[in-house]
Every structure is written in C-alpha cells, then in structure tokens.
Amino acid sequence: MEPPTGFRASLLSFLKFLPYFCGLLILGFIKGVLLCPWACLIMAIGLSVLILGLWPMHLIWTYYCIIRTKLVGPVVKLLLLIAATTILIIWLIIGIPGSIFAGLVYGFLAPIMATFGAVGEGKEKPFVHCFVDGTWSTITGSCTVVRDVKDLLFHSYFSIMDDLRLQKPPDGKPYEIRLLDIPGALISAACGLLLDGIMFTLIALYKCPVMLFKGWKRLIQDMIGREGPFLETACVPFAGLAILLWPFAVVGAVLASILSSIPLGAYSAVVAYQESSFIMGLAYVASSVSIFDEYTNDVLDMAPGSCFPRFKYRKSKDESSHGHNVPISRPSSFNKEKQEGKRPPSRVTSFKNSIDEFNPFKLLDHLFAECRHQGEELVNRGVITMKDIEETKSGKVGSGVLNVGLPAYVILNALLRSAKANSVGLILSDDSEITSDNRPRHTLFDWFFDPLMVIKEQIKAENFTEEEEEYLKMRVLLAGDPNRLKGALPEVPSLNERKKAEIDAFARRLQGITKSISRYPTAKRRFDVLVKALLSELERTMGGSLSTNGSQAQRLRNSVARMLSQKSLGKTANIRDEDPEAQITSSSRTP
Fold it and tell me: Keyword Membrane: yes or no (predicted)?
C-alpha cells in the first residue's frame, strides 16, 4: 500500500481512518474488560499454586546444591546461602502479587492487540475476526503462560542447580573471596546506591519532557505522512495506540532509569573488590553518573558527552574508562551516519521487510521442527529407540539422546552445512541464513550464537571427510549413552588420537549449548510436542515391521497409548493435524 502524498491527501486519509481506529479501540477495550477477570483468575491461581507448592522444594534443593558444590569455598557458600534465602523470600513475597498483576495486564491487553491484528492485510472476514479474535486465544494463552512458568520453575531450575552441584572448578581450586576487601566493597556499594539513586532520578526527571515531546513529534509526523510505523495498514492501529500510550512509555522509562541505579550502584562493590581499592570503587560511583548521562544523551539524540566528570576506576591500562575525557562510543548507527556521511534511515521503511528478521522464538520453532524431521529419519534408521522415548516421557535422566543429543545433532548439521558453503553466518535447512545483520538483538541469543560461530570456524579449519563427519554426528547424538556409542561409531582409519580428542571436545561443547537452550522459555513445551511426533512415527514404523506378530504389535500400541494418556496439556491433535502419517495411523486404530 502506497502512502498518500501531499498534506490534503494525508489529512483526508487520517480522518477516514480515525473512526475505524476508535471503533477497534472501543471493541478491544470491551473484550479486555470481559476477559480480563478470567485470564487473571487462571494465571493468579496457576502461578500462585506453582510458587507456593514448589517453594519448599526450591529452598531445600538450593541449600543442598550450594553446600555440595565444589566450585566455591566455605565463605562464598555462606554468602550464597544468605543471598539465596533473601532471594527466595522476596520471590515468595512478590511472586503472588506479581502473578495477579501479570494476569490483569495480559487479560486486558491481549484482546485489544488481537482486535487490531484482525484487520491486517491478508485477513479474511475481518469483521468476524474483530469480534472472535482474542477471546478463546486469551484463555488458552493464560494456560500456556502457566505451563511455561511451570517448566521454568521445575525443569530449568533443577537443570541449573544440578550443574552448580556437579560442576568442578577449572583449575581444581574452589573460588574463594578475600575477606579483607569486603568492608571496602560494602561501603562502596552503599555510596553507589545512595549517589546513583539520587542522580539517576534527577537526570531521568530532567530529560523525561525531552523524551515525551520528541516521541510525540516523531509519531505525529509519521501519522500525518503515513510513514514509518504508519506505512503498513497492519501497523497503523498499533502505531496509533502508541501515540495514546506514549506518556506511559515515558513514565516506564523514568522508572526503569531509577531502578537501573540499583545494579549500577551496587557494581561499585565489584570494582572495589576486583581492584582491591576503596578509592577505585568511589571513582566508579562518580563515573557511573557520567556514563548514564552520556548514554541517555545518545538515546535521546541530544548533545554528546556529559557535564559530569569521569574518573579512572580500573588499574589496567586497556580499559576505556581511564579518564573523564573519554566518551562512550555511540551505537553503530550513529557512527555510520557520521563516518560514511549517509542520511539517517528513512521513515518509510516497510514493516514487511523488518518482519523477515529472525527472533529467538522463530529460531526455537525452527530448531524443534528440524528436530522432528531429522528425528523421524533417525527413528526409521533405528538409531532412536522406544527406550529413549520412554526415558524422556517418564522424566528420567537416562541417556539424554532425545532431550540433549537430538538438538545438538540438528545444530551440528547446520554448522557443517554453513562451513561447507563458506557462510559468514548460519545456514538453516530452508536455505535461510542467520548473519550478524538479521540475527536477534537479544543478549540470551548472543550466548548461543557467538560460541556456535566459533565452533563453525573450527570445523571449517578441520576440513572433515564424510566418514569423519558421520563419526562426529554419532558422537554428538549418543554422547550420553557410552554403551550404544561404541557400537554406533563408524570405523574411520584416518582418525588419530588428536582428531578424536578434538571431536570429543566439539561434542561436549555442542551438548553444553543444547542443554542451555533447553532451559529457554517455552523450550520444554515445544520439546513435548516433538516427543509426541516421534512416538507417532515410531509406532508407525515399528507397527509395520511387526505386523506379522500381532501380539507384539498390540503390546506396542498399548504402551504408546498409555504414555500418551499420561501426558497433561498434550497437543496430540496438533501433531496429527501436521503429520499425515500420524493421521493414517490414528484412523487405522479407530474401530
């Protein structure tokens, strides 16, 4: 859709659109008011039960893992026990009110967003969807939120604590703290919290009018000219809502600035301890005000630099914080404009181009879709067995072939594909490529993406043969089951001890990354869907091969049916809708 040109055409377009926007906003508001109590009830009860029910287990297991860990010494363990107790008490206090507040916010805003999304381009019967969208999906979304929180509190928590309990220090010596540096660090933290809390608040309040009027000016200019977020029809309702809610965004930014003073001020204790100097801690406290002021100037496109002094707070000579005259580097977008002489990005950037950028949840969906595809191939080859699926379904530790080995196997195939294509990023199975330009701008994703790029470059340097690649794949997939690994590894004469050690290191690193991905929000729910798909494929494959033995096939089907019936909040219908073979199997079992 081309935006109108000229002031008169833009004004007429805006006036014609305004009644639709107001009608959608009123309809969404009514739906939000009606559905908010139900969504709040589901999330408040579900999350509160999880918090209260798991809190004693979290308390006992946290104490046990901290006491048994070999990573830290006695003094650090004592401090960790005190900190863990404080965090668990705060979690219990704010968790229940927070679940009620989250239910209210989600139950009210989700129907409004769904109402606006119903009139986007390509939507069929928008009038009907305006009333239907955001009703039942809000209720099911509330249940999904409760389930994801359950996975985080149960699966992710115990996985992290087990790593803390079992991991050993790299050099064999536990981490310990210097007791003599503790008083100076605590005093530095107190000074940092006091000074940063006051100064950050004053700076945020001083600059909030600038953010308010600059934001309104930009949004109104885009609205009149149908540019920027107002270019695409699907985005117009959200952009119009942004104008109305912009003051709340400014208030939220001010509150976030005030809250940021807590970690930044407390970090002075870290500086004082690391440098073994109380003076360096105080220097950081004063410099953090300058850092914050300069950062807010960059964000609001104000004059660069800061009027506050910036001192040297590190003894090492390679720090960028040596003097107050060293400014913070602006983001790359500012540097490119100045260095290359380019004009600022145009406000008429299409929303359709921006949605092609990857986000963590899209990549997570792609990972599990590829796990399903390659997992079905491994089931047909007999590499993944019923024992693997039974261990995963029952929640046993087992060999980890499915929950750790299979995702690592999929990621390894992507790395090998990218290394062979000499790609600068990561090539997925659908030939799309993740690069530094379109990758998700998320700190959590950086923890996974950067190490994978390092492994890809190392694989490219090794230049493995096909036999060695197959050896590496089996090593990654079956690393948790040494007995099966010995029989599954192919004989590769070209492998010497050095190369085997390198392959083992690759396998351990990939499995470590995969274990971290499994703790990501919504990962457990997606993995449950994957397991059901593999169960259907295994039933179809093994059922056909055992058709001559009726009793064995019947026992297999009964075993699968029992496991499926034990799964709560299952999505078997979704899997069967997506898998025609599972539909055939299901229909053949129906009398």
Answer: yes
